[in-house]
Each structure stands twice: as C-alpha cells, then as structure tokens.
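Protein in question quoted for reference:
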Amino acid sequence: MPFRSVIQKIAQAPLSIKIGEKLKTAKSISLPRLSRLGKGLISSHLCQQQNKPLLIIAATVEEATRWALQLQAMNWGNVYLYPPIDNLPYESVPINLETTWTQIEILSELRSRIDGCNRRMNKLNAMFSDCFR
C-alpha cells in the first residue's frame, strides 16, 4: 500500500482526468517520456478507476520482473509474470519443463478467473431476466 496516497493524488490531477478521457476514445495511450514509476502510477490509476486489467509487455525478463514488483507494491491483487521460452522455434535445444509448467499454471489461473466471471455474469443475466418476466 505504499503508493495508495500517491495514486489518490494522481486521481485528482487535471492531467489524469484528460488522459482518462482520451483513453475512453482512443482505447490505448502511449507515455513514452515517463519513467517506469510514472507510467506505473498513471496506468494503475487509470485501470483501477475503470476497473480494467493492466497488461504490460516488457522486452526482457529483468524489466518484466521490475514491473511485477512495482505493480505488487501498487496494490495490484494479481500480478502474473509469464516466462518466455529461452530458445528459438527451430533450435534443437530441449524445452525447459519448469518454464513450460509455469506458463501452463498462469494460463490455467487466468482461464479459471474468466470462467468464474462468466458464471457470475450468467447468474446476473438470469436474475435480471427473471425480474422482467
């Protein structure tokens, strides 16, 4: 929770409101000159404000790890670090089973979360349709 008060201050800033309005129409934004911390704070605020997930793609495992640690410090409940496969598609190097297992675990967790959301939506739809009968 160390960043909660900072994120609250960002939420009150006029620039944050303008970026949020732009994101509604543009569907994506680019923050090229900000540091990782600045990008993390602004994107955390925007995604939490709109109750949307945040996907970050990093060029290296080291950079992805720094992002994951920063997002955990920003009170993101679920942060998944999807490990890359270390060999090229046509290399004859054996695949690392630990990496593959971690990838499968992450995909399974995300799938179960989606299934849970779909079940809740189906229940809500059934409740609303019963109300209007």
About this structure: The chain has two domains: 1-81, 85-133. The radius of gyration is 19 Å. The chain has five helices and no strands. The chain has a mean pLDDT of 78.
